[in-house]
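USER:
Try writing one entry.

ASSISTANT:
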Amino acid sequence: MSSEGKKLFNIIILGVSFMFIFTAFQSCGNIAQTVITNLNNTDFHGSGYTSMSIIYGVLSASNLISPSLVAIVGPQFSMVVSGVFYSLYIAVFIQPATWAFYTASVLIGIAAAVLWTAQGNCLTENSDENTIGRNSGIFWALLQFSLIFGNLYIYFAWQGKTHISESDRRTVFIALTVISLVGTVLFFLIRKQEDTKAPGDDDSTNEILGESSSAGNKMMRAVAAFKKSITLSLTKEMLLLSVTTAYTGLVLTFFSGVYGTCIGAVNRFGSEEKSLIGLSGIFIGVGEILGGGIFGLLSKRSRSGRNPVVMLGILVHFIAFYLIFFNMPNDAPIAPMEGTDQVAYMIPSKEVAMLCSFLLGLGDSCFNTQLLSILGFLYSEDSAPAFAIFKFVQSICAAVAYFYSNYFLLQWQLLIMVLVGFFGTITFFSVEWGAAAALAARGSDYSSI
């Protein structure tokens, strides 16, 4: 297999592995609050929102050290170990205990930081400035198939059910745990790239993440990775992109946890309210996959760079927020187990709810594919620290959003996303214009990014 073929193979395996792991994890997150609501009249006293807040809070802090951990053990083994912890978190729901639930939330927060830092490094190592857009799209599209499979099962398994029984819960989470473990094992298929550089050549990525049998050298690279993360976080480009990244964290919280809970709480949807949670996840996944395919795989046909895709993303999201505001009751995110009988500005429509799910996924893919692409382009030699900063900002904003989701009415959650999304789009434009100018100065074609 040629070098380029091997790199493409690695990207596909990376995407498929993440697809399996996040088929389990995202399905878990989508139904966690609904399942927990049915458990809270037992000895279990946990909150899905609080768990997710812990996960993303720990994830954000762990991103300060994740480049160092990846430097010591290598990206492939880092992803394998992280996948095991994802599986353990999902397995907690088979027989829930409050202490185990929150302990697993802390552990998976650390694992997630390491997983995504290693993923960013693996994506960048197997790409160059001409293939980073394509590879980002392939990875994102494969990853987002995760939203289809798990939610499809939930839709059919829970159709017509208003209460989730112990048997239903165990069946779902045993299956999700096995799926997560399959994705973890697939990481072993990723092939290591051969070092083609001369012995005296300098490469800061290899300096930080290269392999060595010397424990001293590994520790030096770990310290270098930490210092590089601090340095990069203070650059103008990274500070501007952090606003855009913050928006993706808020949206992640909304579509992966809050919106499904809102749908499941609307009593006017009748006996379909619980199965609609799964159907909503499917439509989100369709939007994500479509966006990844169009804006990633077909990026070479665009001569306008990344800004038009991000502009489309924010417009799609604003339409979705407007329709959700009209369609969903304000108290839906914080409704009790009995649900809510309130009505917003229209009779709740299942069709509009599913359309909004699709738009949320499509818009999210616009932002994430372009963020992955521009980070891989700007920081090709410092990929691990750059992606660690990306996940740090995204996860700390997701943690904050999960926390306030326990208390804020729907209208205030939507308003926060509108404001942050507006400013995040402007800051992304600024960085992209700078990247285009730098590429033009090097005599490269702007469409190649």
In short: The radius of gyration is 21 Å. Confidence is low (pLDDT under 50) at residues 196-213, 445-449. The chain has two domains: 10-190, 232-434. The first helix runs from residue 3 to 39.
